[in-house]
Structures are given as C-alpha cells and as structure tokens.
Amino acid sequence: MKTICFYFQVHQPFRLRRYRFFDIGQYHNYFDEYANRSIMRKVAEKCYLPTNNLMLSLINEFGNRFKISYSISGTALDQFEMYAPDVLDSFRRLAETGSVEFIAETYSHSLSALKCREEFEKQVNAQTNRIEQLFGQKPTTFRNTELIYSDEIGAMVADMGYRAMLTEGAKHILGWKSSNYLYTNSINPKLKLLLKNFQLSDDIAFRFSNRDWEEWPLTTEKYVHWLNSINPKDEIINLFMDYETFGEHQWAETGIFDFMRALPGRVFAYTDFEFLTPAEAARKHQPIASMHVPYPISWADEERDLTAWLGNEMQNDAFNNLYSLVQKINKIDNPDIQRDWRYLQTSDHFYYMCTKWFSDGDVHKYFNPYDTPYDAFINFMNAFSDFKIRVDECAKAELEGKEDEMPLDVQDVDVLIAEYENKLKTLKAIKSEKTSSKKRTTSKTPSDKAPKKSVAKPKAAEKKTVKKTSTSKAQSKPKQK
To answer: Which of 370, 336, 331, 335 is nearest to 353 (CA)?
Structure first.
C-alpha cells in the first residue's frame, strides 16, 4: 500500500517595532506587542482554530487511519501561550488522539544550522523540551527551518539521535530521480530523508484559488485522479505546506476547508493510499539511495536555495553581525538577553531584507511588512546595535563578577553608531557602483550591444493569487504560488 504523508509548518515570528536610530542606548523593547497580538488573534480565528477543529473531526471520523504531523516553532508556542491559549488547547486535543506526530525544529525558526552547531543543538533541544512538556511527545523526526538541508546539516541531525528528516525534493538535486521514495543522508545513512512532492503540495498550498490556473477549480475528484496517475512503483507522496494555507493564505471562501474535509474519504474510497506520519513512513519504507546535497537547499523560491535569507550584502552583514555575539551570549545568564537573542535570530527578519524583485518578487513583497528591504535592514540593525551594547555590558559585568548590569557607556554608543554609519555608506556605495555600471552598459551604441536573449514568460498556470493580509511570512515559494 502506498503512503500519503501530510506535514504542516506552524510558525509566527516576533515582529520588530519601528526601532529608531535615536532609540539606540535608550530603549530595549524591540518587539511590536500590538502587531504580534493582533496578527496572532486574526490567524487563530481564520486558520488555527477552524483547521484544528477540522483535523480533529477527520480523526474522529476515520480513527487511526487518518494521520497528520506538525512542526511548531518555539516562537509560535510562546505566542500561543501569550495571546492564544485556546489554540494551544486545540493542539493538545489533537495530540491526545494518537494520530498526530509533532516534529522537532529550531526554537526560534532560525538559520543557526548554517552558522553555529552549538547554538543549533541548543535551540533544537529547547523546542523538543517544550513539545514534550505541552503535548506529551518527544519528537523523533526533524525538520529544519524552511526545510533547509545539506549533507553536513543532515549528519548533525543524525548525531543528535534523529532517524528521519524532512526536506525539499529539489529538481537540481534529484535530476531524473523521483521525490516519491525514501532516501538517506550521504554521510550518515542512518538518517532517512522524506522529500516534499512540490507539485502536488503547491497545487493545494498556492494554486488552489488561482483562477488563471488551467486546472482551476481543484476538486477532490481531480486530485485523487492525479494521485492514481503517479508511477505505480512510487511509494510515498509527501505533502508539505504551511498550516496557514487553510483559511489565511487560501481564505475559507475559496472552498479550501471543504476540499480538505472531503479529501481523506475520497482517498480511502478510490485509491490504495494510506495516511502515515513521517516517523511511521520512515519505518515502513526502505530507502532506495543516498541523496548527495553538498550545498544547502530549501523549499524557497524557484532556486530552492538560501538566497531568500542570505542573498545580498545587507542580509549577510546582519546575519554575520548577529552570530558574532555567540560566544558572549553563552557566558551571560540573563533571561532578557537570552529571550531577545532567540527572537532576533528568527529567519523572517533576514527574509524581509531580500531584494529579489524578479520571478519571486511578488511573493516576497506579500510577506514583507516593510516598504523596502532597506527599511528592514535599518530597523533590524538599529535594534541589533542596542542589543550588542547590552550584551557587551553584560559580558563585562559577568567578567568582573558583578550581579547587576552596568549602565550604558555613551562612548560605546558613539563608537557603535560610527561603525554603523560607515557600514551603511559602504552598502550605498556598492549599490551606486552597480547602478553606474548598469547605466554605462545601457549607454553603448546599438552596434556595441550584445544580442538580446529571449526570456520566457512565466506560465499563467504558475502564478499565485492570494488575498493580501497583514500576516507573517509563510514559506517562500516560486511565483507559481
């Protein structure tokens, strides 16, 4: 019998407030309490509560034949406790059914796996402890932030004791091979890999309400026909998507809830598929080969790489500056510093700085609360600058054996501001040079110009139509969303 594996990402970031340059050294509250509370309540009412009730009703209807799985970031769990305890209770009811698997991930939905193994492991352990505390399950399957994976990251995960991991079935990695099988990590074959079937996943997550899509409207009859049309030798279909697909990205008016309510019954009636959790699927199926991934992949954008978060000078500068504090942070026993450190690591902050305005630009703008990526960079660096001063002062106090934090040194603030201004000048100079170079190129005579290359226009079927709301970023996908 073939397997369908449903996995949902649940994440909400702690959004930064508008932190001004002159707030540095004066105010240490970086996060927008009003925005975080209001967005959480809005998404709870539109997505989390009705979708959890729907999933619970399906489990009650079909018993242990219907299985699903979730990874919930620590920042989402914190916001559930602070702003939406009713959502937390609804997840507890799902956990009690025995048909739901909760998956491990980084606590703050961070990119720590790319920078610091110690911090990565610390965050994973913190998230799994919270899952065990809240839902009575100790996760055995791992999913990294935004499905980011490489051979080295997989080996780290295997060393931590996990035996299964989720990632993207990226075409440039698989080549002619199918994502509908189990694979293994090329360094440690004990780690089994479940790969997202991005075509069938995105049909639900992104194309469902797109009236320009040639397959619109998507019905359960049509979807089950596609399932039955896959290669008879294929063993597992991994449907991975944001949980906010239901009710938030695809509004209730699109019929998304009706589609999901009818899908399991039609699968049972007209296919030979069964629903399993990732851990169950990894135990049942045998890997067919190892998957070699020398450079990190993700489920973001057409490239399926890291450029959504680390694709320009601003993103890399902010990222490197943040993780330059790791050693000092580890020596500081201050709950406020540790909390802010985790929340500042959330990948969303770097995503907002993305300058990709081509095939994936509309998707990035949809999930970005800032007017420009440069605004996102400046706001983050303002908050980071104040945070760095606090860390330096705490580290100095810890070193000198003092119990209380030392007052901020105005001289330190001036030095940091000067460094920050110089960095901004450098980034502006780089941008100016690129603009000048482009103008020089376009000013050539026709005879000097190289022949233009034709650029294929994206198919209308691969555009995504969504209703814009002020919600958090879900996973970034190609424009086919």
So the answer is: 370
Distance CA 8, CA 165 (A): 14
Is the whole model's pTM more than 0.85, yes or no?
no
**CA dihedral defined by 319, 321, 326, 328, rounded to 10 degrees?**
-160
Hunting for tokens 């540095």 — which residue is that?
24
Eight-state DSSP code of residue 358: S
Residue 338 parent element (H or E): helix 335-344
CA 143 – CA 131 distance, rounded (Å): 14
Mind listing the pLDDT tens digit for each residue in 169-197? 999 999 999 999 999 999 999 999 999 99
Residue 39 is encoded by which pair of tokens? Answer: 């967005």
Handedness of CA 354, 147, 139, 329 (dihedral sign): negative
Q: Which residues pair with 41 in a beta bridge?
A: none
Tokens 């440069």 locate to 374
Cα gap 459→480, rounded to integer Å: 8
Token readout for 163 is 């035996």
Query: Residue 101 pairs with which residues in a beta bridge?
Result: 69
**Cα–Cα distance between 143 and 344 in angstroms, integer?**
20
Strand-strand pairing, 289-291 and 182-185: parallel
Query: Are 297 and 286 in contact, with CB atoms under 8 Å apart?
Result: no
Backbone angles phi, psi at 31, to 5 degrees: -110, 145
Output the pLDDT for position 453.
44
Q: Where are the domains of the chain?
A: 2-291, 307-439
The Cα–Cα gap between 157 and 153 comes to: 6
| pLDDT for res 434 | 66
Question: The tokens of 234 are what?
Answer: 């294929």
**What's the pLDDT band for 408 if we cut at 50, 70, 90?**
low
Q: Which CATH number fits domain 2-291: 3.30.420.40, 3.40.50.300, 3.10.450.50, 3.20.110.20?
A: 3.20.110.20
Q: In angstroms, rounded to a whole number, what is the distance separating the alpha carbons of residues 287 and 190?
A: 10
pLDDT at 433: 74
Known catalytic residues are 146
Span of 198-207, 383-392, 467-476 with lowest mean pLDDT? 467-476
Q: For residues 144 and 164, is the Cβ–Cβ distance under 8 A?
A: no
**Mean pLDDT within 351-358:** 82
* Contact criterion met (CB below 8 Å) for 15 and 472: yes
How many of the other CB atoms lie within 10 Å of CB of 28?
17
Residue 56 above 90 pLDDT? yes
Q: How far apart are CA 400 and CA 441, in angstroms?
A: 58
**Whole-angstrom Cα distance, residue 451 to residue 471?**
43
